[in-house]
Amino acid sequence: MSDPIVQLQNVRKTYTLGASEIHALNGVSISIERGDFVTIMGASGSGKSTLLNMVGCLDTPTSGKVKINGTDITKLDDDKLTTIRRDNIGFIFQQFNLIPTLTAIENVEIPMIFSRVPQNLRKERAMRTLEQAKLEAEYAYHRPNELSGGQQQRVAIARALANEPPILLADEPTGNLDSKTGKSIMELLVRLNEEGTTLIVVTHDQKLTEYSNKTIVLMDGEVSNDIY
Predict the structure, then answer these.
(1) CB neighbour burial string for 105-125, b if at least 16 within 10 angstroms, e if fewer
(2) How far is 39 from 122, CA to CA, in rounded Å?
(3) Is the dihedral of CA 120, 126, 128, 131 positive or negative?
(4) How many CB atoms sit inside 10 A of residue 89's CB?
(5) Is the dihedral of CA 84, 89, 92, 98 positive or negative?
(6) The 3-state secondary structure of 68-88, one letter per residue
(7) With contact defined as beta carbons under 8 Å apart, do 57 and 85 qualify?
(8) pLDDT value for 1
(9) How many CA atoms lie within 13 A of 2 on its CB side?
(10) Are residues 143 and 103 in contact, defined by beta-carbon separation less than 8 angstroms?
């Protein structure tokens, strides 16, 4: 049996704020298998964002271990963390975070530029991932302000897929969408998961747990229930 694609072992993260210490994560241990669709829930301040930063290689723990696709990231320097993040993780954000002066296809090309994908391949792969994200071809050369919220999120998903990462992290992916559009985005994420992508969705919306095969609930920096 292969190792989990994401594994946290007794992870603690403590921030110092003046004379106070804030324990954002307090001994969190979780395992996520390849092909899982996991939702992570919790109130504000529960540790969701800190956990997302750990899995996304944006931060390292005060103590404990974090393994991403078999690599222990705990002691890696920033350059090596960047490489692990680039090669393994795609990010989908609530605010879309598209560059307003670029077209949809140009936004999707950005991660490939950092990965030094040749220019002649970038356009082809960007169009393919936009098609995968179900954005109609006629919108590929539109700028974000010419797209609906749902279309912008599809561009953001395509951008996250650009380097073909095995893991997608989604932070409140339906938070800025109406219920109908949000449902279509979740159905798209389910399809990507069925095609083999490991999906981790951070949310406060309990309805999204209906799409996942596991849910982790955080409370005060700890896992408050079993994974199911």
Answers:
(1) bbbbbbbbeeeebeeeebeeb
(2) 31
(3) negative
(4) 23
(5) positive
(6) ECCEECCCCCHHHHHHHHHHH
(7) yes
(8) 58
(9) 10
(10) yes
Q: Is 196 exposed, middle or buried (0-12, 13-18, 19+ CB in 10 A)?
A: exposed
CA-to-CA separations, 68 to 3, 52, 148, 165, 198, in angstroms, rounded: 10, 12, 34, 12, 12
> Can you tell me the distance from the alpha carbon of 177 to that of 134, in angstroms, rounded to the nearest whole number?
16
Cross-strand partners of 91: 169
Q: At the top level of CATH, which class does the domain 6-224 belong to?
A: alpha beta
Q: Are 169 and 55 in contact (CB under 8 A)?
A: yes
Q: Which of 115, 24, 112, 119 is nearest to 63 (CA)?
A: 24
- Rounded distance, CA 118 to CA 108, Å? 14
Could you give the residue ranges of the DSSP H alpha helices within the chain? 48-55, 78-88, 104-114, 119-132, 149-161, 179-194
Closest CA to 114 of 89, 143, 82, 88: 82
Residue type, 76: L
pTM: 0.91
| Structure token digits, residue 171 | 């932070």
Can you say how many angstroms the Cα of residue 137 is from the centroid of all Cα atoms in its chain?
25
Show the low-confidence residues of the chain (pLDDT under 70): 1, 225-228
Report the pLDDT value the prediction gives residue 228, as an integer from 0 to 100.
Answer: 42
